[in-house]
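G., the chain you wanted modeled:
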Amino acid sequence: MMAEPVDADRTLGTGSTEPSIATQKNTNPENTPISEAIPENNGNTHDSPSNMGPSPHPDMSKLQCPPKDPVIGQQLPQPLSKNAQKRLRRMRAWEEKKQYKKQLQKQKKKEMKEKKRDEKQKSRALEKEQSDVDMDGSETTPVPDGEGENNAESEWKVMMVVGQKRKGEERNGAGGEGVTQSDCFTGPLGKKAKILQVQVPITIIIDCGFDDLMTDKEIISLSSQLTRSYSDNRTAPKQVSLYITSLNKRLAHRMETTLRNHHTNWKKVRFSKDEYEVTQENREKGDLIYLTSDSEFTLEELEEGKSYIVGGIVDRNRHKGLCYRKAQEQGIRTAKLPIGEYIRMSSRFVLTTNQVIEIMLKWLELRDWKEAFLKVIPPRKQPEAADNLSSPQPGIG
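Predicted structure as tokens:
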């Protein structure tokens, strides 16, 4: 059987009776273009774009654009939503509050400046009035009351300065004695004035030549005691000259590395890798005095021009008589602090290096051994004044 010829229109599924493109090509003797040869779709809905799904390109003419300003020709802004309007109101309120705070801060700063300026003017007027009274040799004119707390505070500051100047003149005229504890002023509301510090011609030598006899923990403890000693002397009303000798080996290594060379910034302190110098003149004059509890002599007072040596050692009382033997070998004087004559303690009289130095500084300030011991010795050792002791107990330097 012969194969039935395939109809091109039937394969496309159009169902149209019109001739196919290929047939038109063969039957178009004049080679008419295909676009002209294909007839228009006369009501056939199978091949229409509406039946082939939505168009990928929407009709741009149907989109609504925002209205334009008829004068300028630009698009008008769209109205904000309710949430956008709320955010805008919050932002405006926050900006207004910020500006209000700035104005308050400026006003407060201005008021503080005016207040300070008024206080300065009042203090200068009081100081000038006081200086005029001092020059005339008459008594101090009282300041009228009722000017408020600020006036009282400024008056106190002026009186503090004038009082310090007058006391300084009296000390210079009386031989240059130092400031006592009574020279310290206490202002209103418990404010303390700056204490006038005086350098006393006394040297305290800290002998650190016992490095080999201490453990690593004891080296750490000794470095802390040196720092404390410097701090006590720096804040004391009467300061002495500190001289730290034999600073070498492990102690020097710790202060240079772990403590980051902070000791190089200490003021009124000298350091030496070598031992303190002992000369024949020092021996004869007795300018060097080694403080040790094994000495037979008790220290009654600190003399100006002398150098007092304190053993820089933390040994938990393992090496007894070490400092005393060293002083005997060097041929220098020895002495001990009079602890047993003024204080009764429950434990042994073992004081650290910084405690010995602090007691000496307190004595220079108070001129009273008992008060100096009570202020320095820790409360856990329960010190008590020994006014009625039958026999004095041994002390330690």
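Residues 174 and 377 are 33 Å apart (CA to CA).

Shout if anything looks off.
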